[in-house]
UniProtKB/TrEMBL annotation:
Positions of transmembrane segments: none
Lineage: Eukaryota, Metazoa, Ecdysozoa, Nematoda, Chromadorea
Originating species: Caenorhabditis tropicalis
Alphabetized InterPro entries for the sequence: Dis3l2-like_C, NA-bd_OB-fold, RNase_II/R, RNase_II/R_CS, RNR_Ribonuclease
Record-linked SUPFAM superfamilies: Nucleic acid-binding proteins
GO molecular function, a single term: RNA binding
Residue ranges constituting the RNB domain according to the UniProt record: 1-50
GO cellular component, one term: P-body
GO BP terms, alphabetized: miRNA catabolic process; mRNA catabolic process
Protein name, UniProt field: RNB domain-containing protein
């Protein structure tokens, strides 16, 4: 979804005014002039239109240039916030060491899949390129084949397969990687984890903390 942007209405057709995410035909910011400069511009225009403020003497081109600058600043602020969160999370994992967490699969590729780590709200890519696997492009699923393991728990020693698809609930291991980066890996599931893997996002939300323990 494209991020909403500020613009001068004089420079655009009415069809451009629609706010997709909120599904409204006309939308602007004006409630927080103390922290958003676009809100100040709107307040000044409202004051002029209502007759208790000075008339706005800026032309549409100048207003549009202000909007462009506000969009650039807003995007830079978002990127700084996102990168800071990634940096802090990397420092956190390097400090506490490897952590096993529950995650929800967001997308499946032929050599990897993306997951949302529920507890921390971070998205990581899990690579399985060194495993025996079968990728179903049409179903957007990835079947992983786990070798037999004599050291595994009773009933889980033989070879088995698990299928990864959108909204699958899996267990991932978050580990320190390089300087402050974090890697996510999927290790051989236990019997309990195999049962969880069979659940989908709806079931996870219904069972809540039971699945996330």
């Amino acid at each position: 979804m494209q991020q909403a942007k500020y613009f001068c209405v004089a420079d655009h057709q009415p069809s451009y005014f629609h706010h997709y995410a909120l599904n409204v035909d006309h939308y602007t910011h004006f409630t927080s002039p103390i922290r958003r400069y676009p809100d100040v511009i709107v307040h000044r225009q409202l004051a002029a239109a209502l007759g208790y403020g000075d008339r706005c003497d800026r032309d549409p081109e100048e207003i549009q240039n202000i909007c462009i600058r506000c969009n650039e600043t807003k995007q830079a602020s978002k990127e700084a916030s996102d990168e800071s969160a990634i940096l802090y999370f990397g420092v956190f994992i390097h400090s506490v060491g490897p952590m096993r967490c529950q995650a929800v699969v967001l997308g499946v590729l032929d050599l990897s899949f993306d997951v949302l780590v529920v507890e921390y709200g971070v998205v990581k890519r899990v690579y399985v390129d060194k495993m025996r696997r079968e990728y179903n492009k049409q179903a957007e699923s990835l079947t992983l084949f786990w070798p037999a393991d004599a050291n595994a728990e009773s009933g889980n020693k033989d070879e088995f397969s698990t299928t990864i698809q959108m909204c699958s609930v899996i267990s991932v291991l978050l580990s320190p990687y390089k300087e402050i980066e974090v890697s996510a890996t999927m290790q051989r599931p236990t019997l309990e984890q195999r049962d969880i893997l069979k659940s989908n996002l709806k079931e996870m939300m219904e069972t809540g903390s039971k699945v996330l323990e």
